[in-house]
């Protein structure tokens, strides 16, 4: 089954929600970056969060980036998503060897940056400290402190015996400013009672079933259901533009070596080749 993201409202529009199955997305990231299980788990959670938060973008051209810079052996992760379920990401150290569920130790202390490019002159950047390194709790803290939106974030990744991804997914449930105290109390109690998202994923529950479990008593209204996927939009033209930002001195040095160069996209590892004539053309344009 292809990955999907759903969103909608509940409790007479007092609550909004986002949920997704991201199994294929996280598995593609694992294969692309050759990640160890604990790194797959950490990056998978951030990719899932990216899909969910990307769905909050208002316009098709908006971009959301989640960047973690941390003291743990993972060192850092970066995920970019859009409003249409497309997400991509990479990790600084893909082969950290820790138990698969020890994400907090792999990440440790650090900073979460949420960067929103919504077509303004400069993107909006919100920084918060990592509170646990578990990713979901860190995103919950970001929403509370930076966006002032009370939220419940749950993210999970499960593995097969061969360390491939068996299930991945999660949800974000948020309170609107006018949510009544009665709804808040009832929802808080419900979230405390339910099984963890990993347990629900392990049972094979779909995003719809997970939300029905949580919000079924609140009048669940699903407004959108869209495909989600790990998808990179890199191209030789984009990479060429990046190379052309090098100084003339640096380009001359590369050209003088007399050999073609290969540049890999950090997100998808696709390699792009540039021969000396192409490099000379870039240099002459300066």
Give the % helix: 25-40%
Quickly give the structural class: alpha+beta
Gyration radius, rounded? 21 Å
Report low-confidence residues grouped into runs of 5 or more. none
Read across the widest sheet, the strand sequence of neighbours is: 7-6-3-4-5-11
Largest sheet: 6 strands, mixed
Structure in words:
The strands form 3 sheets. A 6-stranded mixed sheet has the order 7-6-3-4-5-11, covered by helices on one side. The protein has a 5-stranded antiparallel sheet with strand order 8-9-2-1-10, sandwiched between helices. A two-stranded antiparallel ribbon has the order 12-13. Helices cover 35% and strands 30% of the residues. The termini are far apart. A hairpin with a 5-residue loop joins strand 8 and strand 9. The radius of gyration is 21 Å and the shape is elongated. Helix 9 runs antiparallel to helix 10. It has 10 helices and 13 strands. The protein is of the alpha+beta class.
Would you kindly provide a brief summary of this structure?
The protein is of the alpha+beta class and 286 residues long.
Please specify the SSE layout and strand pairing.
Layout: E1 4-10, E2 15-21, H1 23-33, H2 37-54, E3 63-70, E4 76-82, E5 86-91, H3 103-107, E6 110-117, E7 124-129, H4 136-145, E8 151-159, E9 165-175, H5 181-193, H6 197-202, H7 207-215, E10 221-227, E11 229-230, H8 236-244, H9 248-256, E12 261-264, E13 271-274, H10 276-284
Parallel strand pairs: 5-11
Antiparallel strand pairs: 1-2, 1-10, 2-9, 3-4, 3-6, 4-5, 6-7, 8-9, 12-13
């Amino acid at each position: 089954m292809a990955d999907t993201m759903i969103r909608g409202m509940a409790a007479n529009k007092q609550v909004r929600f986002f949920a997704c199955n991201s199994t294929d997305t996280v598995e593609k990231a694992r294969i692309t970056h050759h990640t160890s299980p604990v790194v797959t788990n950490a990056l998978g959670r951030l990719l899932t969060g990216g899909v969910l938060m990307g769905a909050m973008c208002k316009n098709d051209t908006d971009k959301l980036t989640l960047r973690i810079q941390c003291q743990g052996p993972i060192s850092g992760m970066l995920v970019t998503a859009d409003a249409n379920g497309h997400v991509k990401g990479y990790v600084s150290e893909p082969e950290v060897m820790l138990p698969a569920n020890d994400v907090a130790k792999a990440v440790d202390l650090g900073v979460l940056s949420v960067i929103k490019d919504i077509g303004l002159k400069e993107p909006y950047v919100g920084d918060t400290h990592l509170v646990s390194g578990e990713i979901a709790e860190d995103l919950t803290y970001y929403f509370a402190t930076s966006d002032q939106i009370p939220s419940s974030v749950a993210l999970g990744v499960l593995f097969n015996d061969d360390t491939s991804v068996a299930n991945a997914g999660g949800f974000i449930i948020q309170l609107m400013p006018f949510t009544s105290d009665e709804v808040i109390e009832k929802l808080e109690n419900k979230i405390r009672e339910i099984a963890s998202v990993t347990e629900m994923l392990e049972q094979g529950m779909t995003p719809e079933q997970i939300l029905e479990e949580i919000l079924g008593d609140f009048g669940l209204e699903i407004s959108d259901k869209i495909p989600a996927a790990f998808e990179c939009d890199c191209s030789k033209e984009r990479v060429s533009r990046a190379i052309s930002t090098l100084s003339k001195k640096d380009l001359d040095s590369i050209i003088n070596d007399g050999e073609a160069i290969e540049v890999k996209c950090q997100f998808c590892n696709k390699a792009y080749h540039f021969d000396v004539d192409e490099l000379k053309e870039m240099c002459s344009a300066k």
